[in-house]
């Protein structure tokens, strides 16, 4: 055991060791990025197991993504040297689904409930808004959906909302009705939406102390990573789980002698949370930074441990991160240090356009790759998904292997949703949403009128839509459509009957054959349909893989897994590709080289954050999260013009760039350089530019330390006359000369008018894309 203990503490600094070995009711580890919070949590679990203080089944660890959960499980098992079955390491949502699958029967649901994703709940809300004509008082589908979600995260339900609603306000009255209807429909469909998974579990624990006691007794050690991003519902769940079970809730035989304290009652579970308030980036989803700030008050006798050494990044990267985040007020100042050394400077680049920026990123990735950094150790971050288009175009052209994390939306494709809807119908016969979706897919002659007749029958008899289909013969519909409905409902009932004894791939195969779903796609003349058929086959492959990993798994388990696939779960480290993802998805991850693109006003901070209280501060934390993902190399890039939704607009450097000490950034092309060669709207650009104070971070810009004369020169450079090449016509094969890049040959010309772009192979500077109108070039 001594050996194991040594192995578990090996390489840890004294604070980290303490965090692994401390025993007590509550432990709060607050520390900046990359200081080993997640690593310490992992070792702490291993230490509890290795010392036999806990059985695997007594541990509940909460991570931010399913992928992080899998990693943590693997590391714990490697450290302890054995499989730790029965240990719960999962996201909040997965843990709640597991609990609800066991306990839903207590409050009017059954264990085969459906999980509605946000698209499903929106579809339902849309129907309700339409039925109630909520538009008339100005209620939109989004407004209703957002408000319901917010209320659920605050653990409000229809009754509690009704108690404080203002009944003189027609808008509130209408919203209340929508909320009521929505709740009723979910219940009828035996379905939970995403927010329900948490809220209903909390409700379950509060309403049924006997049920709560099972879990309060079972979990002796609860550990939560990324605690700064928990919302009120998640916080409440933790709170419920860390109470002592009510003595009367403990049935005979329940008393586990091992854990009784000297008064004969079960002490509360011990709680460990780790977090960094500077990385709180989900306030818009109800995450409450106060949860971490007020932890000590909520959990008396809390031990607090601070970690200050960063093991991830070079000093230059850390200095940039520290300096950016110190601009947020209302935070505890903490300075991270590292012994890794200064490392390379941060590289800055200002592209003329998003494409130019993307080309720079691609060229650098190639160079880094040649210098020995694997593709999988590089990542490109952006604020919004709309930025991926330019990156993808260039990456494809440069033959760079890449992968968009969280953007692939496989499960959002229509054909996948269709097949999944069939599976949901099989698992949960009460669900009308799924049934409506597949009623006439593939086409079988069941039109909207027929569906309405079935629904009317269901409403009149207060039965499910599926039940109403079973008695289709009573409805007096035509013989053909009656036959089609009979055939569909019989098929669904048959598959529902065998789901528990059938392997998932076989069930799916049978379904596809009997509905002729793939055949219908293959028979179509639409070339898109062939791709759709392939996607469905891909789903079959997913099912096979699921079955390999979960030999005893059945349809319900498969549906649960699919419903919970979070964005970051699609990451696959083993694949040799560069990862592209949003800054939000990047949380908790690390890479050798990181590119943060679009470091511009309106993107970072995002335009939408301006009106939100605390918005810009949250955006700054997001930037901080991005910077601190980098181990050795950090690139910050922006573009002077950016085309979005077909419009080209002038972009401004992000205010956050000024917050990085200028000596840390090596500008390959500074905003000043790029502006002197213009943008597509020169006058507007210069007018805005003068108002913008560059601060010191954009060399050769002015800074407190630079002599005034330099500031003056620099200002001239920025407001320089914009170049205009007018009608310069270039063709493939032309030789040109560029001010910086030297001579080169035009290899392609695309676009029209003022947006014509030349792709040029320079003799020494590589391949570039130039906006002909404004590029500093001449024809030779
Ligand atoms: P974040 O705030 O970004 O989630 P974190 O605090 O969870 O970061 P970890 O991911 O646990 O930090 O650790 C960052 C890196 O430092 C990892 O690569 C980890 O393996 C390494 N590391 C942590 N502690 C040590 C240590 N004592 N010695 C060497 N490396 C360490
Ligand atoms: Mg972490």
UniProtKB/TrEMBL annotation:
Its EC number is 5.6.2.4. It catalyses: Couples ATP hydrolysis with the unwinding of duplex DNA by translocating in the 3'-5' direction; ATP + H2O = ADP + phosphate + H(+). Residues 10-314 form the UvrD-like helicase ATP-binding domain. One of its GO terms (molecular function) is hydrolase activity. It holds the Pfam family PcrA_UvrD_tudor. It is an enzyme of class 5 (isomerase). Belongs to the helicase family. UvrD subfamily. ATP binds at residues 31-38. It comes from Lysobacter korlensis. Gene3D superfamilies: 1.10.10.160, P-loop containing nucleotide triphosphate hydrolases, PCRA, domain 4. This is DNA 3'-5' helicase. Keywords: ATP-binding, DNA-binding, Helicase, Hydrolase, Isomerase, Nucleotide-binding. InterPro entries: DExx_box_DNA_helicase_dom_sf, DNA_helicase_UvrD-like_C, DNA_helicase_UvrD/REP, P-loop_NTPase, UvrD-like_ATP-bd. Residues 315-588 form the UvrD-like helicase C-terminal domain.
């Amino acid at each position: 055991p001594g050996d194991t203990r040594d192995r578990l503490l090996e390489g840890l600094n004294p604070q980290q060791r303490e965090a692994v070995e401390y025993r007590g009711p509550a432990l709060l580890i607050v520390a900046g990025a990359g200081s080993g919070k997640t690593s310490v949590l992992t070792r702490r679990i291993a230490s509890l197991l290795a010392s036999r203080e806990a059985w695997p089944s007594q541990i509940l660890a909460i991570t931010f993504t399913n992928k992080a959960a899998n990693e943590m499980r693997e590391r714990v098992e490697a450290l302890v040297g054995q499989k730790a079955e029965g240990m719960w390491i999962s996201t909040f949502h997965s843990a709640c689904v597991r609990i609800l699958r066991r306990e839903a029967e207590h409050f009017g649901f059954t264990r085969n409930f459906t999980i509605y994703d946000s698209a499903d709940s929106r579809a339902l809300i849309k129907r309700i808004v339409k039925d109630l004509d909520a538009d008339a008082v100005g209620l939109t589908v989004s407004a209703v959906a957002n408000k319901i979600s917010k209320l659920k995260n605050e653990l409000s339900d229809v009754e509690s909302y009704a108690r404080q609603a203002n009944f003189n306000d027609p808008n509130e009255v209408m919203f209340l009705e929508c909320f009521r209807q929505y709740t009723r429909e979910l219940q009828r469909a035996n379905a939970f939406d995403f927010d329900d998974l948490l809220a209903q579990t909390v409700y379950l624990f509060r309403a049924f102390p006997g049920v709560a006691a099972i879990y309060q007794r079972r979990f002796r050690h609860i550990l939560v990573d990324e605690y700064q991003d928990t919302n009120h519902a998640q916080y409440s769940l933790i709170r419920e789980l860390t109470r002592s079970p009510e003595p009367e809730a403990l049935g005979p035989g329940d008393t586990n002698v091992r854990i009784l304290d000297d008064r004969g009652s079960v002490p509360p579970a011990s709680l460990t949370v780790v977090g960094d308030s500077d990385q709180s980036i989900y306030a818009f989803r109800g995450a409450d930074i106060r949860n971490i700030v007020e932890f000590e008050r909520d959990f008396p006798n809390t031990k607090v441990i601070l970690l200050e050494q960063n093991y991830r990044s070079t000093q230059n990267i850390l200095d940039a991160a520290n300096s950016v985040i110190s601009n947020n007020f209302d935070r505890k100042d903490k300075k991270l240090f590292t012994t890794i050394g200064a490392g390379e400077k941060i590289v800055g680049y200002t592209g003329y356009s998003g494409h130019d920026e993307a080309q720079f990123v691609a060229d650098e990735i190639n160079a880094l790759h040649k210098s020995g950094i694997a593709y999988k150790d590089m990542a490109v971050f952006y604020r919004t998904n709309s930025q991926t288009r330019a990156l993808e175009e260039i990456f494809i052209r440069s033959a760079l292997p890449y992968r968009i994390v969280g953007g692939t939306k496989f499960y959002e494709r229509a054909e996948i949703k269709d097949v999944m809807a069939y599976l949901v119908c099989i698992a949960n016969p009460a669900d009308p949403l799924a049934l409506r979706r597949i009623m006439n897919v593939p086409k079988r002659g069941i039109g909207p009128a027929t569906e309405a007749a079935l629904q009317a029958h269901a409403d009149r008899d207060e039965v499910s839509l599926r039940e109403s289909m079973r008695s289709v013969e009573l409805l007096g519909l035509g013989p053909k459509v009656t036959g089609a409905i009979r055939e569909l409902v019989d098929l669904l009932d048959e598959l529902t009957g065998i789901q528990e004894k059938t392997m998932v791939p076989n069930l799916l195969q049978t379904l596809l054959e009997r509905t002729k779903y793939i055949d219908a796609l293959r028979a179509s003349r639409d070339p898109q349909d062939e791709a759709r058929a392939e996607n469905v086959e891909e789903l079959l492959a997913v099912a096979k893989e699921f079955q390999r990993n979960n030999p005893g798994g059945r349809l319900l388990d498969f549906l649960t897994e699919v419903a919970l696939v979070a964005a970051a779960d699609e990451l696959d480290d083993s694949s040799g590709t560069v990862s592209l993802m949003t800054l939000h998805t990047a949380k908790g991850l690390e890479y050798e080289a990181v590119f943060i693109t679009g470091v511009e006003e309106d993107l970072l901070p995002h335009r939408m954050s301006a009106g939100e209280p605390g918005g810009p501060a949250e955006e700054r934390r997001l930037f901080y999260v991005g910077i601190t993902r980098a181990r050795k190399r950090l690139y910050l890039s922006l573009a002077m013009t950016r085309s979005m939704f077909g419009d080209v607009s002038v972009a401004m450097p992000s205010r956050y760039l000024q917050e990085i000490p200028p000596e840390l950034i090596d500008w390959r092309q500074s905003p000043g350089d790029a502006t002197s060669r213009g943008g597509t709207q020169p006058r507007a650009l210069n007018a805005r530019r003068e108002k913008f104070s560059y601060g010191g971070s954009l060399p050769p810009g002015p800074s407190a330390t630079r002599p005034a004369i330099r500031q003056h020169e620099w200002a001239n450079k920025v407001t320089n006359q914009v170049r205009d090449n007018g009608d310069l016509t270039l063709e493939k094969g032309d030789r040109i000369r560029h001010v910086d890049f030297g001579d080169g040959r035009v290899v392609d010309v695309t676009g029209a008018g003022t947006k014509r772009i030349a792709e040029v192979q320079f003799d020494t500077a590589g391949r570039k894309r130039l906006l002909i109108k404004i590029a500093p070039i001449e024809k030779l």
